[in-house]
Records
---
Amino acid sequence: MIYEVFRQERKGQAFAHAGSVEAPNEEFAEAYAREQYGRRGESTALWVVPREAVHEIDDFADELQKNYHRVDGYPLKEKLGKARELAARSPNGLSAGAG
Amino acid sequence: MTPREQEFLDYVQSGGQVETDDWLPDDYRAKLIKFIEMHGNSELMGVLPEREWILRAPTLQRKLALTAKVQDEVGHSQLIYRVVEDLGKPREQCLDDLISGKSKFHNVFHYPTKTWGDVGVIAWLVDAAAIISQKALLKCSYAPYARIMKKICWEESFHILHGRDVILTMMLGTDEQRELVQEALDRWWGPLMQFHGNPIPREDDPMYVWRIKSQGNEEARQQFLDGYVPQIWELGLTVPDPKLRKREDGVWEYTEPDWDELKHVVTGHGPKTAERLELRRATREENAWVRRAVLAEAA
């Protein structure tokens, strides 16, 4: 059996994939994971997970161009430039609260 | 080469990395397995010269450090064989091919260790040469291999320190101890200069073309010379090569390494090849009952 090992480097940090171990059962998987990824105090915790239990999703289709919930959906630079130009051309006008 | 293979080649040559489940050209997969398997074999065979010194280590501290190093290296071979397994070649088959002589391991692990000086030179300079190759694998186009190299390089850095400490201790000792270091350096210099392989241009090296390695053989050797010859000289040791010098343009000149010896040794004819493979075979056989018991219990 292949077990995937995830390790946390410091308390509070996210677990990151460390590698995998081959073991006949969970008990051996734990022992191998401890030796490979914990013996130098480099981890505060490990997750040992049978490979089959990991479901990977790697297709992120965006047919509807839903860019409004991403940073790149808000290209402000050009608009800001125009707004500044506009404001500069009418020095006395438009300033909210001035009246 | 098919258009799909060409697209893959362009991708890895522009720095792209791939994962186990991605489509891989057959030639790429075959080269990966060959390269990574030889690395795994070398980690596993590399512990044997050092193992011979665990019982003869000069102090308890050295004995413990050497034992830990052996554990690290065997751990590396486990990690590396895991990567090979995911590429399609089971670990048991890797061990079969190693023992039968079908697959290879690095030249430096085919030689005897005559004195404790050899142990120091191996841990310092052989590991230094190895870490130069290994650091160039951190950017390997096959991402699972590149990832485990991070952990391996981290552990190798302890080994170099251990080796340097052994050497410095001996150099600060008696004349006899200093002689042991010099004699060991004389023995290991040839194999060390052969270690990174013949200086074929990297564009002609399939391992570079597929971006399995990220540097050419001669680049690695120059990096080794640049990093370690000054360290060797500053201790008052002599490098046994009268032609060795650094040119004004920064390139090291040296006597042509014995490429026939390299070829002879890695094809299974080194002074210790047969003995060490026989030990590997015998221990595997002796331990077979453990694997049977564990697998039966787990089933």
---
Amino acid sequence: MNKFSIYAVLFSFAFFASCGGDKSKSGQDESKPVTEETDAPASDPSSYDPHRGEGKFDSVELGASLDQAMASKGEEVAGVKCTSCHKITDEKLVGPGWKGVTERRKPEWIMNFITNPDPMIDKDPEVQAQLEICLVRMPNQGLSDDEARSILEYMRKNDGVK
Amino acid sequence: MKNKFLKAVFAIALGSALLTSCKPKSSGDAVSGDAAQKAYVAPGKYDEFYNFVSGGFSGQLSVYGLPSGRLFRVIPVFSVDPEKGWGYSEETKPMLNTAQGFVPWDDLHHTEMSQTNGEIDGRWVFGNANNTPRIARIDLKTFKTAEIIELPNSGGNHSSPFITENTEYVVAGTRFSVPGDYSNGDVPINTYKENFKGHISFVKVGKEGEMDLAFQIVTPGVNFDLSHAGKGKSHGWFFFSCYNTEQANTLLEVNASQKDKDFIMAVNWKKAEEYIKAGKGKKQSVKYAHNTWDEKTHTAKSEIKTEVLVLDSAELKDICYMIPCPKSPHGCDVDPSGEFIVGSGKLAALIPVFSFDKMQSAIASKQFEGDYGGIPVIKYEAALHGEVQKPGLGPLHTEFDGKGSAYTTMFVSSEVVKWDIKTLKVLDRVPTYYSVGHLMIPGGDSKKPFGKYMVAYNKITKDRYLPTGPELAQSAQIFDISGDKMKLILDFPTIGEPHYAQAAPADLIRNNGQLKFYKIADNNHPYATKGEKESKVVREGNKVHVYMTSIRSHFAPDNIEGIKLGDEVYFHVTNLEQDWDVPHGFAIKGADNGELLIMPGETTTLKWVPKKVGMYPMYCTDFCSALHQEMSGYVRVSPAGSNVPISYSVGTNLPATK
């Protein structure tokens, strides 16, 4: 290559560089997309209370005797949202049977678990052990507080509370 | 000698390369170094804008994130979608009903989001059907098509679905003028001039979004192409571009390109409302479908309506005015202040910008140059703010950044040109790959644009992506317009062919009360099954109704016997889940329609007509849990006249024990 063509090549390089001038400006730009956290990270599992569970219920007052009307309401709600997967005997269907649950668990634990299952499935050692047996995470069925309470009453009835 | 000659050739070749090197040949030339950073949205992070993009000949609406270009969802609108059961489930079939019967496909060109006070409000997005004229309303809480209204007296609903600043009306204008449905359509095609009419439709939008065809304005036969509402000072007016003012009925390519100027038609819709109050409209007998979706019954209903109120633009003065506009105008765009109306003559070598104030004084002082079919034609100069000179070739559409600049696409010269609305000076130009049609700035046709990104929706991609046979990817390109210069930051492929689009800040949509699931207690579907105890199979003659539930991870019932050849089986599947993101699917062997995709708390129906005796598995199609593969069942089909009784069960139909 003689001088002439070398110049030509150099010149063309210079030209390309000048056209692509934007490349040299690679500083930070304020117009970066605004992004947000999707969900708050799970809180520290060591703070988890296995007796109470996690959720909005700290303590649940139970009557000395059964509230029949509430238990009937609970049976009705359970028919729509629960008994596809839970039998009221001690037999496992998709999830464990309900027999004896009110003796094994505190009422606030039950209320928290049925209204707020996901964090408890992640943290509660006994629920995790149960998940290894059932392999289906209990779905959040969108229970209202009243519905949850009435289901608890129905569970009590099922466990022989009169 | 030979060597010298070669050198000379080499030098010339280089020289010519230099001359053309400023026209970018590859992405490397057009993309700045920090493009990736600007378009990057890290995994798990959210985009800044929702982008609602027309799906063109797919008939659907797609939803992307900006600036990432990630596809979130394709919302079925005018075309059937077996994946979602749209147009296949019994509940959705009425949504696609028209005066012509069930229509499974259309061509969705433009989207427009609802506005309040001229600002995007995040409630609904509208879409137009360009083939069998209709307007759809999509609810942005459910991302579902909630309503479709058909437009009588129309052919090719193109200049639609643009809205007024408080979503009082959504409009439609006929692209193909035709004899009105209330007159005789069986006439020679070459009688266009006497028999063909234009109709523009004003569809009233109610508080809950419900649409009602309030009135139509009949005009001389032309092709209405696009439109935009006035805003602010020009609120109360609507502007429609029209071409083929030559009234050609054949070889429009040549015969509709004769005149140097066609028109922007300005419509004073408040005046039209006054005439209606004064009883000046004529009720005409027509037929059109109005289809609505009911969120409580999860079912659509289709109603055929038979009357429309028509106002005559020639007879009723002061509703319509024609503004001459060079040449075959396409886009018709109004700036955020409402003062400037940009007509993009696709065959013009300049962009005329009209002034609303000047138009008003021209009307007041009667500066007319004649009339067109009884509609006064305002003198061009009297309404003109000015012209953008030498903008490029083939101007199509204009959007605004809210900072005094307009951005116009140039189809023929494949570029977007940024210009100053007041001084009409070209400020910047940037190439697109290739042949850009529409463009979109979030809020860019409203009073409040978010002038950070501009997206070009291209007609041709040629060499931009890996080749995929004769049909290549459709594509959009995102530009950062936060600085003086437009900067290309990302190409992304789209579904269908993208035409117009809209975008809204992400928070406006995601905080609008997004529906997460349907409450089972509110489910008023006549065949809802609220709990497994209610599941059953009921024979009514040769129709068999299966009341079925689904929950992770089984159907109830999952064993069904007693179906016979000749039966029509309706699976009414209720998804008992009450949590976000847990749809169940339903499919059965041999179904000649689609699957069902049932949202939590919803009931949906698949009609199934078995054609052979035998055993038919059914299963859940949407992976729902670790035991999803177990979510299945059997239907036994016996010969016609068989005496196998109807029976159904879940978990109890066990082998006989000895």
